[in-house]
Recover the amino acids of this structure.
């Protein structure tokens, strides 16, 4: 089935998320929709899937105009979607998830689970998935859950299948397998729309590339384009994809983690005997697929994790058992993975956010009084130094873009006397320009002879930024390797196979 | 994964209670009467030796505790459910025999009274199950019960038609639920606050109409007929269970059906799958074309109607008149039963029966003039519940989206 979007425009208040967008996806073709975070890719696909109503424009299937009042209509017309955040119910079985919305029933509205299982087996067999229809979805690994999403879309007889940022949660191996599935779908005559911002993936599977920037179609790109050509189209200017970094000059190992284990509140071990050390002037990247203990590791270092055992030493002083405040006072800078949730108070002004950790001491406070004059001066200085684009220091954090929010967090954390710098996914969801800036700041911090710990989920970032890479899998460190280690080896380590 | 030490600790605490009962056990007998006039064959009253019962119960408890502690600590395994059940049964028997020391315990009427107290609780917990399973927290069960009690009394008094009264109760409960749903779903108001406000509103409204209208002419407005009890042939003649379960009013029989139907509908039908999907992850349900709002309204209102029916049991099943605030917190106990019963209609019904039994025990003891202070007895069921929920049920997770409004982007 041929899909065509003609002149789609979607506004949210004053923001134009999609501006007169045209797109054609042919059967038996993988059409990549490339764009940065916030370029309007997901909005466009949600319009197509009936989740949003377009303000202008039309959708055509096989040259006939269609109108979707909701996702049900889109599905009935043969459009399927594999969502970025899986639309699966964790406590349901695979079969229950797959049939939801078009359940086979027996007399009296009774569910026909036997028929449901058969359907799951049928589609699984066609693609060589081995999925137990009675498994509880929440117990399955993320990669398998994604296959359940695919089965769910295919069972509705999808002729057009949209993949919305499908690789964000996958290991490199799982990504390769997903690419193979897309090719299989293409061979079967499905029109595949693949939304992503990862250039490597685009180059591997795309038959056609459409680039979206700030809600507008910038143009089509040749599938044989180089990475930097694609990147400049996506960003709108020349970009340097490599991190500028001199050779590390490691000093003494001042940060040591020994035998660190941690448990979550239901008693499950989330960190299992973690050992590593970081030298002054060195970046250690913790790589791995999200949810393998990285969050818990950074929380344990900062003193936020509940139940821990083992030892974390900075300059010979034990951090375990210390409060967050004590840890920060020992010179630890921390950039949490969720800016808006943990890094900033969204409703506070930039200035207030900049003094969150030091509002109790000189020169920000004298006795009980805040020194607002000094704060203003300090905030203005930092705004300039970190190139934060904001109307004023009185703007709230919520009003800032993701990149500028992250700059505020960095400005706060890097303006202390540091002995260790920890940043968890510091570039998540940022535009290319901000990513460059954040990388520069991290490298500069390293070059001032501070040990740096970065959590990265994207392999490219890990290899470019890191001096050494520690790969985590299921709460353990699989191995610590130099950043020159081949991608394939790192990928295997991310799946738990030690090098 | 390491097993939690919670169960053995709870069992230890309860074993200590059991040991104390054993030490304090008076010598003598407790007489147990289990026959009623309608039974096919009569069983004679019999006496049991209190010390003997307490000793054997304590033995079961010690064995249960030691076994559980061994399994959890040494073998890292879960305590089997039958151990917990046997343990609890032993403790309950021990408590009962001790409390009725030297007196006669009429077991059948004890159970009959328990069921009567449990009926509104069971209907209420079904309302809670249907509401929370679809993602709306229903604190307004109390209001739904009270509205059902009030409207059924008024309608039946005026029309002299019991069925009209039942229908009135269904509509009244559904209406309260509808208000809850509108505020929770459409206006995205905090569901707990709406629920509490609704309860207060229904109390105020019924009190007001009662004092201004009903009291002026009680025979006209507040003297409904009552449902007669119907003895089901054969089933009703089974000793003990027969008179308890099968010599009841229509409302109670409707309750049996309601528990079974709600269970079946929730877990075996297409409708139920969609209800649970909406309560777990509304966006996922939306993306497969399920109408989240309609599903929520419908399920919440069916629940409200059932609670209304439960409310009619106060007036048409028991008292034969409406009284101010006559539900007396039953809605909140129903809420506890629903959580204790893990959002499952059948488990919730058993939890409600347990609460009904605990409450009735206190009346039973008051009648025989037990020496145990009534305030203590009043507290006992709830203290036991806290220990049971914390120690034996453990962490329960309700529907993931319960209490969260769904906002379509």
């Amino acid at each position: 089935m041929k899909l065509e979007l003609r002149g789609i425009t979607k506004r949210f208040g004053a923001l134009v998320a999609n501006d007169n967008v045209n797109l054609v996806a042919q059967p038996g073709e993988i059409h990549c929709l490339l764009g940065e975070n916030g370029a309007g890719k997901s909005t466009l696909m949600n319009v197509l899937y009936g989740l949003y109503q377009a303000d202008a424009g039309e959708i055509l299937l096989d040259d006939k105009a269609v109108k979707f009042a909701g996702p049900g209509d889109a599905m009935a017309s043969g459009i399927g979607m594999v969502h970025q955040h899986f639309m699966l119910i964790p406590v349901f079985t695979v079969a229950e998830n797959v049939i939801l919305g078009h359940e086979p029933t027996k007399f009296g509205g009774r569910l026909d689970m036997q028929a449901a299982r058969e359907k799951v087996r049928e589609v699984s067999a066609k693609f060589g998935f081995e999925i137990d229809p009675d498994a509880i979805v929440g117990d399955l690994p993320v990669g398998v859950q994604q296959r359940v999403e695919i089965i769910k879309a295919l069972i509705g007889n999808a002729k057009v299948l949209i993949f919305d940022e499908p690789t964000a949660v996958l290991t490199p191996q799982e990504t390769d397998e997903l690419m193979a599935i897309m090719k299989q779908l293409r061979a079967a005559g499905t029109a595949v729309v693949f939304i992503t911002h990862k250039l490597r993936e685009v180059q591997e599977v795309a038959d056609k590339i459409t680039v979206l920037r700030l809600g507008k179609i910038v143009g089509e790109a040749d599938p044989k384009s180089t990475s930097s050509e694609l990147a400049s189209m996506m960003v709108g200017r020349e970009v340097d994809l490599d991190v500028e970094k001199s050779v590390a000059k490691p000093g003494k190992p001042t940060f040591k983690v020994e035998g660190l284990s941690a448990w979550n509140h239901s008693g499950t071990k989330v960190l299992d005997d973690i050992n590593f050390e970081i030298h002054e002037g060195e970046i250690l990247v913790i790589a791995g697929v999200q949810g393998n203990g990285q969050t818990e590791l950074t929380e344990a270092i900062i003193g936020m994790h509940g139940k821990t055992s083992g030892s974390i030493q900075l300059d010979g002083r034990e951090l375990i058992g210390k409060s967050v405040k004590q840890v920060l006072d020992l010179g630890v800078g921390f950039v949490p993975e969720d800016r808006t949730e943990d890094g900033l108070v969204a409703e506070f002004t930039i200035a207030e956010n900049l003094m969150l950790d030091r509002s109790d001491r000189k020169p920000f406070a004298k006795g009980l009084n805040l020194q607002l004059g000094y704060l203003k001066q300090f905030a203005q200085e930092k705004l300039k130094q970190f190139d934060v684009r904001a109307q004023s220091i009185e703007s709230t954090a919520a009003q800032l873009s993701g990149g500028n929010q992250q700059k505020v967090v960095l400005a706060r954390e890097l303006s202390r006397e540091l002995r260790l710098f920890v940043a968890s996914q510091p570039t998540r969801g940022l535009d290319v320009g901000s990513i460059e800036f954040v990388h520069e700041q991290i490298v500069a911090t390293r070059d001032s002879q501070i040990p740096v710990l970065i959590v990265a989920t994207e392999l490219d970032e890990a290899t470019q930024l890191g001096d050494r890479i520690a790969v985590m899998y299921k709460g353990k460190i699989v191995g610590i390797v130099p950043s020159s280690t081949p991608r394939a080896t790192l990928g295997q380590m991310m799946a738990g196979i030690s090098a | 994964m390491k097993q939690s030490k919670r169960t053995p600790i709870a069992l230890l605490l309860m074993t200590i209670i059991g040991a104390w009962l054993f030490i304090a056990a008076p010598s003598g007998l407790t007489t147990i009467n289990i026959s009623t006039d309608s039974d096919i064959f009569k069983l004679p009253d019999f006496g049991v030796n209190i010390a003997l019962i307490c000793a054997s119960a304590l033995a079961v408890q010690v064995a249960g505790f030691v076994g559980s502690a061994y399994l959890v600590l040494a073998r890292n395994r879960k305590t089997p459910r039958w151990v917990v059940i046997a343990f609890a049964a032993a403790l309950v028997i021990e408590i009962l025999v001790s409390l009725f020391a030297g007196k006669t315990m009429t077991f059948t009427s004890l159970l009959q009274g328990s069921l009567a107290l449990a009926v509104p609780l069971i209907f209420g917990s079904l309302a809670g199950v249907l509401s929370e399973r679809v993602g709306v927290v229903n604190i307004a069960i109390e209001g739904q019960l009270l509205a059902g009690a009030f409207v059924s009394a008024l309608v039946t008094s005026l029309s002299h038609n019991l069925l009209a009264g039942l229908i009135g109760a269904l509509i009244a409960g559904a209406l309260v639920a509808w208000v809850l749903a509108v505020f929770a779903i459409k206006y995205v108001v905090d569901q707990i606050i709406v629920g509490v406000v609704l309860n207060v509103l229904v109390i105020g409204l019924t009190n007001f109409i009662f004092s201004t209208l009903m009291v002026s002419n009680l025979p006209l407005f507040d003297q409904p007929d009552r449902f007669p009890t119907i003895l089901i042939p054969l089933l009703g003649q089974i000793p003990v269970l027969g008179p308890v379960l099968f010599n009841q009013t229509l409302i109670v029989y409707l309750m049996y059906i309601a528990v079974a139907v709600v269970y079946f509908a929730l877990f075996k039908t297409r409708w139920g799958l969609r209800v649970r999907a909406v309560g777990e992850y509304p966006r996922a349900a939306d993306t497969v074309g399920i109408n989240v709002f309609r599903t929520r309204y419908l399920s919440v209102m069916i629940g409200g109607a059932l609670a209304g029916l439960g409310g009619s049991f106060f007036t048409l099943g028991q008292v034969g008149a409406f009284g101010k605030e006559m539900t007396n917190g039953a809605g909140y106990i129903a809420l506890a039963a629903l959580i204790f019963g893990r959002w499952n209609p059948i488990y919730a019904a058993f939890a409600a029966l347990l609460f009904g039994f605990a409450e009735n025990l206190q009346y039973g003891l008051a009648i025989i003039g037990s020496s145990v202070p009534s305030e203590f007895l009043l507290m006992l069921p709830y203290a036991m519940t806290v220990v049971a929920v914390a120690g034996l049920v453990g962490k329960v997770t309700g529907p993931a989206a319960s209490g969260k409004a769904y906002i379509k982007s």
In short: Chain A touches chain B through 35 residues (CB under 8 Å). Chain A has a mean pLDDT of 90. The radius of gyration of chain A is 25 Å.
